[in-house]
Amino acid sequence: MTYFLLHLGCQMNQSDAERVRSVIESMGYRSVDREEEADLLGIMACSVRQKAIDRVYARIHKWNQWKKNKSIITFVSGCILPADKTSFLKLFDLLFGIEDLPQLPTILRQYGVPSQLSQTTPNDTSSTDSYWNIEPSYTSSFEAYVSIQNGCDKFCTFCAVPYTRGREVSRPSQEILDEIETLVEKEYKSITVLGQNVNSYGFDKRSSEMKFAELLHNIGEIGVRSKKEFWVYFTSPHPHDMYKDVLEVVSSYPVLANNIHLPIQSGDDKILIKMNRNYRIAAYEKIVNDIRTLLPSATLFTDIIVGFTGENEAQFNNTLKAIRKYRYNMAYIAQYSPRPGAASYRWEDDITTEVKSSRFHAATNVLKEVALEENKKFLNEIQRVLVYKKARRDGFYEGKTEGRVPIQFPSDNEALIGTFVDVHVTEARSFSFAGELCAP
């Protein structure tokens, strides 16, 4: 029996997909890269972006055509709005919430799917109380994502996550620390802790759980005890809950990587109010100043939405000013699109597609200028690099610095993948470096 699983959307969906894989493989299924060869076809969907939903419809239409000639079962899970769920129920054989993942073997057996899972197998996930207790089937041997939280309480007006994943629920800290310690023992080199708002971790269990800074402190101590080299990242924090103590902890432990992802979304206070972001530019700037003081070598990433409902030219220009002022190394820039369920869906989408596209390109161009200037500061320096893969260019490999900036260098040694190397930076580009491998 074979299966194919496609995950769309953010790293949270990727992390959830790794647990889905564990459950499916515990039933005796084998993963295949070609969907045409699969008996079980699944998608981890994402309702946050319309493009991702369009891809779901395209895929299930194709799969349902295949049913005319072969016996297959289709399923969908992930981050799905109620309206999309209603449509998917008519198209897929199965739809389940990620919290119901432990029951997936039982659900599939009701469809007549045999399970090769022994009743005494320790990984019998059908009796697991929480999907977090399911051990992920990591898709990489050196990079892993560790979920620490699910859901969101912020209710940004543009965002559908509170309606797809529900309110914030923090995973027990001991489970998180145990998973990370196991990954370190297995020689994982890059670990990213995930949540919709990681720095509000523990807020829902104030009397029984640690705060995010304390969680990071304990992760840092794992690094001290292990004496191993690895980098730990976190995403995404919300500026409203980003306190100085988090940055102080990051500055105290080498394994806590010097890279901060701090979504700004807009550089204009009135737009931030309309987005229900619960901070103003002055407060955001204070956090950036703390980052520059406590983590002077850290790269700074952000998220930006252009063309939000009612955004005028002056307000957009404030976003351009913010890019220049805060000196981002990377920004994930999106053109606003209304999502059913989000509060802003009720408002008129009054910025034309042409204006959104123009603002997207203008913001991207300013970002390219700033990022290039920042990256030039690393010219002729030696950077520690985690090697990820062969580059498309023959004879070259690609890795990332601690600040998550991609870098390519010539080599013919495939054994470097998944290891740390030192690379001399010889060329700086807007979003990447080129370099030469240093002698060991």
Summarize the structure.
The protein has 440 residues and is of the alpha/beta class.
CATH top level assignment of the largest domain: Alpha Beta
How far is the N terminus from the C terminus? 46 Å
Radius of gyration: 22 Å
- What is the overall shape? globular
Describe the structure.
There is one protein chain. Helices cover 34% and strands 21% of the residues. The protein has 440 residues and is of the alpha/beta class. It folds into three domains: 2-127, Rossmann fold; 132-377, tm_1862 like domain (pyruvate-formate lyase- activating enzyme, Alpha-Beta Horseshoe), CATH 3.80.30; 379-437, Nucleic acid-binding proteins (OB fold (Dihydrolipoamide Acetyltransferase, E2P), Beta Barrel), CATH 2.40.50.140. The strands form five sheets. It has a five-stranded parallel β-sheet with strand order 2-1-3-4-5, sandwiched between helices. Strands 14-15-16-18-17 form a five-stranded mixed β-barrel. Strand 12, helix 11 (313-326) and strand 13 form a beta-alpha-beta unit. It is globular, with a radius of gyration of 22 Å.
